[in-house]
Amino acid sequence: MTASPLLPPQTHTGAVTLRVRDLPLLTDFYSTLLGLTRLAEGPNHVTLGAHGTPLIHLEGDAHLPPAAVSRPGLYHTAFLLPTRADLGRWLRHAAGLNASGLGLRLGTGDHLVSEAIYLNDPEGNGIEVYRDRNRDAWTWQDGQVQMDTKTVDVEGVLAAAGDTVFGGAPAGTAIGHVHLKVGNAAEAAQFYTQTFGLDVVADMGSAAFLSWGGYHHHIGLNEWHSRGQGAPSTPAAGLGGVEILTPDLSSLRTHLSGQDGVQDGGDTLTLHDPWGNRVTVREAAQ
After folding, report:
1. Residue 49 has pLDDT above 50, yes or no
2. How far is it, in rounded angstroms, from Cα 275 to Cα 119?
3. Which single residue of 54, 68, 144, 286 could bond 49 by disulfide (Cβ 3.0 to 4.6 Å)?
4. What is the DSSP string of 16-67?
């Protein structure tokens, strides 16, 4: 008899929290770059989202030091757009921002399962904006999804948009995945599989990619800049937390019952991984 999964296959990534040093600057940057709207705000925090869905929480603290490159935390937040045409409209928009002097440094990656554009925000937090290829175009072998990093056909992406223009984040924009920096990728993959019931769908040694429900990845883990590092002992700007959304917390609650460091908020379970990254799993209607 097969054991029930810790989290249902519909589980996916939700909003990301960033601790930022310049709240007005970062609020304007994400709003302008991605066409996000303000959903909530207070003296030291702003929530930005698309069509009522929260995507990023910005917590401002001007006294925070910048995070060292070797510090475990955020590698990038990945914003998933619904279609290739949406990615093309956004890319033309980003190019226009560059032409007006914003100075974005854009990189690309065709990962076979997706086409992605990469950049950093003004405080060095990584950003990916991408679209998925249809799942029937993904190749699986022995439980592993085949991924690579090739150059994106930028002209093809732009052509998919035709003459249409970017009008803000389209309906369906989501946090497709979150990529984290950890001290040891293999140990991190073991922690995330055992703690949250994720499946390792691509193991590259110094990086691992994990998901629920056969997605190419909801969580990425790498040690490229942070190998050998432990949990930071002092606060810094950067990742404040990752949210996971699930239709049912009951099995995970039973699994984590009695474990140290788990905070049960009723509709949430919150804990930290061994490198200090905060993960909150929230029960929410799908």
Report:
1. yes
2. 24
3. 54
4. EEEEES-HHHHHHHHHHHH--EEEEEETTEEEEEETTEEEEEEEE-TTPPPP
Residue 4 pLDDT exceeds 80: no
Q: Is 175 exposed, middle or buried (0-12, 13-18, 19+ CB in 10 A)?
A: buried
Provide the 10 A C-beta neighbour count for residue 243: 21
Q: How far apart are CA 106 and CA 65, in angstroms?
A: 26
> By the 8 A CB rule, do 69 and 59 touch?
no
CA distance 147 to 150: 10
pTM value is 0.97
Dihedral sign computed on CA atoms, order 208, 212, 213, 218: negative
Would the CA dihedral through 239, 188, 248, 258 be positive or negative? negative
**pLDDT tens by residue, 33-45:** 999 999 999 999 9
